């Protein structure tokens, strides 16, 4: 009795696999027939799309030409006015601008002091980097966005994702700081 059950189970499995293969073969044959008889439609749609792309590209190139002509006209007009004002100046030179002192911070960091007591090149670079990161609005925004995104991911995500998010955050934060350090 057990042998018949096992044989029957294997027989059913064999027929299910064969039926699945037959269904896949019929589907593949139907796809081949559709592709065989629809090639004129594919070629026609390809030709229509290529003509539309060429027409769009031609219009864009024409607009770019007009844009550059307009920029050149504006530059000529500005230079004409500059030539007029320079001709009024008897010296024939452009006046020097007065020395302007460095702008101080408006609200925060008015009395900024040294962070490190020992004055070395490495400490000076670190100090400049920290102060720029704290004062520059773009750098602050990027760091705060990254911290906010990863904090939300760690708080909302499942437990298994928290460790991965922490590792990705450490790598992304390090790379962001290295990019900013190279800029500074």
From TrEMBL:
<protein>
    <submittedName>
        <fullName>ABC transporter permease</fullName>
    </submittedName>
</protein>
<feature type="transmembrane region" description="Helical">
    <location>
        <begin position="47"/>
        <end position="68"/>
    </location>
</feature>
<dbReference type="GO" id="GO:0016020">
    <property type="term" value="C:membrane"/>
</dbReference>
<keyword id="KW-0472">Membrane</keyword>
<feature type="transmembrane region" description="Helical">
    <location>
        <begin position="21"/>
        <end position="41"/>
    </location>
</feature>
<keyword id="KW-0812">Transmembrane</keyword>
<keyword id="KW-1133">Transmembrane helix</keyword>
<feature type="transmembrane region" description="Helical">
    <location>
        <begin position="143"/>
        <end position="173"/>
    </location>
</feature>
<dbReference type="InterPro" id="IPR010288">
    <property type="entry name" value="EcsB_ABC"/>
</dbReference>
<dbReference type="Pfam" id="PF05975">
    <property type="entry name" value="EcsB"/>
</dbReference>
């Amino acid at each position: 009795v057990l042998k018949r059950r096992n044989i029957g189970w294997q027989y059913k499995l064999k027929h299910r696999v064969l039926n699945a293969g037959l269904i896949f073969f019929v589907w593949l044959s139907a796809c081949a027939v559709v592709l065989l008889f629809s090639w004129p439609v594919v070629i026609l749609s390809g030709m229509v799309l290529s003509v539309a792309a060429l027409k769009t590209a031609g219009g864009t190139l024409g607009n770019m030409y007009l844009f550059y002509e307009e920029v050149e006209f504006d530059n000529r007009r500005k230079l004409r006015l500059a030539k007029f004002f320079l001709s009024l100046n008897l010296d024939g030179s452009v006046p020097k601008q007065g020395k302007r002192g460095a702008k101080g911070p408006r609200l925060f960091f008015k009395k900024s002091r040294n962070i490190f007591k020992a004055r070395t090149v490495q400490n000076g670079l670190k100090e400049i980097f920290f102060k720029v990161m704290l004062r520059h609005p773009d750098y602050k925004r990027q760091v705060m966005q990254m911290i906010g995104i990863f904090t939300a991911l760690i708080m909302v995500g499942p437990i298994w994702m928290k460790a991965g998010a922490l590792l990705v955050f450490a790598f992304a934060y390090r790379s962001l700081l290295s990019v900013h350090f190279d800029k500074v």
